[in-house]
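Revision sheet: structure tokens.
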Amino acid sequence: MTDYIRLDYWDLGFAALLLVGVAGLSLLLQLRIEKKLLLAGLRCALQLALVGLVLTKLFELVSPLWTGLAALAMVLFAGREIMARQERGFEPAWAYGIGTSAMLMAAALVTVFALTTAVKADPWYDPRYALPLLGMILGNTMTGIALGLQRLTEGARQQRPGIEALLCLGATRRTALLPVTRQALTTALMPIINSLAATGLVSLPGMMTGQILAGVEPLEAVKYQLMIMFMIAGGTTLGAVAAVFAGVYRLTDKRDRLRLDRLAGE
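Predicted:
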């Protein structure tokens, strides 16, 4: 393995000029997104700098308690993003609860599985391995759950007459909502399916690119990237299925009635 190329602040400054250029283009075309773009870039830099400091400390401690707390904080922040991405979906408390619970279950299972089987970290809770893996799985699982819940609530609204007709004919809530459930899960899993299909020929993922830049042999980087992609697919599927089925039960009651009044704005 060769030494990786170190970046200094001047290198980052040159890269940031691209963001400034995009903001200038926004001004020229009157897109009115330059402020949001620059603020987002500043927020990204501050957040990553803070994460870098925290991870440096966590890597020194190698404590299951602090690793667990950091992982929990990541899940809670991701749950907030799921809630924020819902338009006329479940009420905020329910959107947060369903999304966070499903994501915690899926990401925790898949991350621990990866750490104890393929990665074989010693100890298995070593934050140097646990937190980056969890972060990659969380990001994709969060997107899948958000898309699935949004499509579920939209479908329930759009297909309300058909769903209620089936319920009146004696169908159970799961049967009546099955077409909407399938649509929601298909929507939730489409990004990871597209990513699996395009990885390699169309795009080189961030982890693989980072390893190659750090001097890892390309074939070894491919192995790690494949492991991550499979873990992400598993986590996204588990999380989306759990969240969508929980959403189905929230949209109905024990008497098999459709309860759109439980959605925000109804």
